[in-house]
Amino acid sequence: MTCDRTTPRARWATAIAVASLAGTALAEHPARAAADGRPLGHDVSSHQKHVDWRAARAKGARFVYAKATESDGYRNPYFSAQYDGSRAAGLLRGAYHFAVPSASSGTAQARYFLRHGGHWKADGWTLPPALDIEHNPHDARQPCFGLGRAAMVRWIRAFSDEVRRTTGRRPVIYTTTRWWNRCTGGNRAFGATHPLWLADYSDAVRPPAGWSYPTLRQYASHGPLPGDQDRWNGTLAQLKKFADG
Q1: 134 is an active site residue
Q2: d(Cα 187, Cα 6) in Å, to the nearest integer?
Q3: Which position among 4, 28, 36, 43 bears the catalytic label?
Q4: Cα–Cα distance between 15 and 31 in angstroms, integer?
Q5: What mean pLDDT value characterizes the chain?
Q6: 168, 245 contact by CB (below 8 A)
Q7: Annotated catalytic, 162?
Q8: Residue-wise over 178-190: b if at least 16 C-beta within 10 A, else e?
Q9: Choosing from 52, 72, 123, 132, which is the catalytic residue?
Q10: Among candidates 179, 220, 242, which has minimal Cα distance to 41?
């Protein structure tokens, strides 16, 4: 994903794997699953502005995550149009928050996100809220936002707990293996309860500590769909079940 107020960041990935998480059992191991059988999706922010959603669906998109907020004071000015427009075109849609842990607490940023688009409802079309937690685009000298590993884990837990308290769902965690293992110390506590959305552009997927496989995979920063290119690690029926909770 991209931070709306900085240059886009480097990314990772190309293949996909299987997860059994958050009540959704994904049926096949990646070595036995044809990549082109998994639903395609993408993620967008203010960089994409006004998206032609019907064209995106015609090109294969079946889901999208739109950036809603960043830190505790930024809102994507195109979010409502992106979120509502994608749904009108027949895509499953979800909202994500770009975390800036140095700015305020996880609880405060979760509340800001939930007030400005991050809510979830069991309508069969809304994907669970997502937390984008990765290297600091605002200060390359502080990739972990100045937080120690234990403090970062507490920040993520506080964000997750507030989302769970308000929506009933644990957030999807978007991250890279390198950042997670560095900035949380390879913490394994989230893997059993939080779906992983892995940014990995390599030929060999290496999930961070705590996860065996990603539930979602961001595999390219550009392609036929607007924004970053993603793939769900299962069938369309399983994706719809995942949205429904």
Answers
A1: yes
A2: 28
A3: 43
A4: 10
A5: 89
A6: yes
A7: no
A8: bbbbbbbeebeeb
A9: 132
A10: 220
Query: Is 132 in the active site?
Result: yes
Q: Rounded distance, CA 239 to CA 234, Å? A: 7
Amino acid at 184: T
pLDDT in tens, 164-184: 999 999 999 999 999 999 999
DSSP character string of the chain: ---TTSPPPP---------EETTEE--S-GGGS-GGGSPEEEEE-GGG-S--HHHHHHTTEEEEEEEEEETTTEE-TTHHHHHHHHHHTT-EEEEEEE--TTTS-HHHHHHHHHHTT-----SSSBPPPEEE--S-SS-TT-TTTT--HHHHHHHHHHHHHHHHHHHSSPPEEEE-HHHHHHHSSS--TTTTTS-EEEE--SSS--PPTT-SS-SEEEEESSSSSSSEEEEESS-HHHHHHHHH-
Q: Which of 4, 70, 134, 200 is catalytic?
A: 134
Residue range 80-117, pLDDT digits in tens = 999 999 999 999 999 999 999 999 999 999 999 999 99
Contact 144, 183 (CB under 8 A): yes
Separation CA 106–CA 111 (nearest Å): 9
Tokens of 152: 């970062």
